[in-house]
Structure formats: C-alpha cells, structure tokens
Amino acid sequence: MSTPSAAPGTPTPAAAATPTPAPSTGRAPAPGRWGSLGPVGLVLAGGLSVQFGAALAVSLMPAPGRSAS
Fold it and tell me: Lesser CB count within 10 Å: N end or C end of the chain?
C-alpha cells in the first residue's frame, strides 16, 4: 500500500504552517488604555473613589439627632 505524496514543487502543509518567532525587543507589550495610569493616576483614582464613597455614605445614613423620615 503506498501513501499519497504531494506533487513535486508544492509546499507541504507542515512546512507552510511553521511559525516564525517574533523578534525579541526585551520589553513587555504596551498596556491597554487604563493599564498605563502610573502612580499619579492611581492616587487620583483612589481619591475619587473615597470622595464618591463618602458622598454615598452621607446620602444613605441619616445625620445624628435627625429622624429617619
């Protein structure tokens, strides 16, 4: 029993599917839009989060000495 072979001059699928390695630059790929905030951005985002958290707490809890109605 003979196995079929590719016609001469045509590339075999295994040879065509061989990936070429990407050149190494030594650096990680660039982060997404919000992944590059840096330390200043993280501090500002934290302050914004605290501000909205405080506003939410004030709106949910009644002031001391006032009735809840």
Answer: N
6-29 pLDDT, tens per residue?
A: 566 665 555 556 667 666 677 766
What's the pTM value of the predicted model, to 2 decimals? 0.38
Q: Tell me how far apart the alpha carbons of residues 33 and 51 are, in angstroms, rounded to a whole number.
A: 24
3-state secondary structure of 36: coil
Question: Which residues fall within 8 angstroms of residue 51, CB to CB, at 6 or more apart?
Answer: none
What is the three-class DSSP state of 54? Answer: helix
